[in-house]
Structure formats: C-alpha cells, structure tokens
Design goal:
Radius of gyration: 13 Å
Number of strands: 11
Shape: globular
Strand content: over 45%
Order of helices and strands: EEEEEEEEEHEE
Distance between the termini: 36 Å
Length: 124
C-alpha cells in the first residue's frame, strides 16, 4: 500500500502563500490535492499525472495554485498564492492509477486509491 505524507500547512494572512508537499512511498500514478472544510464535501483542487505532462485545476484555484511533481523522488507539490479565507480547509494528497481524465478524477475523490492524513491550511 502506498503511503502519502503531507507537509507544509499552516496559518497565513489573506494574500499570502504556502507550499504543500506530499511524499509518496511508491508512486507511478497520478497525484492530486483535495481539500475539505468543516461541514463541506471533499473537493478536488488540482491533479497531475506522474510525468507532469497533464495537469488540471479546479476553477476556484486556477491562476493562484500550481501543482508540480518531482517524479524522481515521488513528491508532489502544491504552491498556493494569493490565498483567500475561503481556501481554509484540511488539504489531502491522493494518488491512484489513471481511471479517467484528470478532470474526471478531480471531480470524483472515490477514484483515488491512497490518501494522506491531511494538513491544515488556515487563511485569515
């Protein structure tokens, strides 16, 4: 089973930046970032294929967030800029085989096989 470990969360003022990292014990699969705020469903933020050739973003973060992958180390990153209070959530990393387009996978958390424990991002 693939283990995913997120890091990089924290508290930041609106307009600030944070970078999240997700280290995978083994990965040849797509990797994605999701977030879940209290009382809300988990939503896809960004996803990337293992080679970094295909990327997709949720409309709410496009232009502000950047996903990338270091496939030599199996680490995915999420650079978050121009943060807003509505970005406040627990952020989760996920990995899984390509079972559809990245856009489809971003809409369907159930398609992802492995999940990290989450890292909190708070924007005030």
């Amino acid at each position: 089973q693939v283990q995913l470990v997120e890091s990089g969360g924290g508290s930041v003022q609106a307009g600030g930046s944070l970078r999240l990292s997700c280290a995978a014990s083994i990965s040849r699969w797509c990797m994605g970032w999701f977030r879940q705020a209290p009382g809300k469903e988990r939503e896809g933020v960004a996803s990337i294929d293992f080679y970094g050739d295909a990327i997709t973003y949720a409309d709410s973060v496009r232009g502000r967030f950047t996903i990338s992958i270091d496939n030599t180390k199996a680490i995915a990153y999420l650079q978050m800029s121009s943060l807003k209070p509505e970005d406040t959530a627990m952020y989760f990393c996920a990995s899984g085989p390509p079972t559809g387009t990245l856009a489809t996978m971003l809409r369907k958390p159930q398609l992802w096989l492995n999940w990290g424990q989450g890292t909190q991002v708070t924007v005030s």
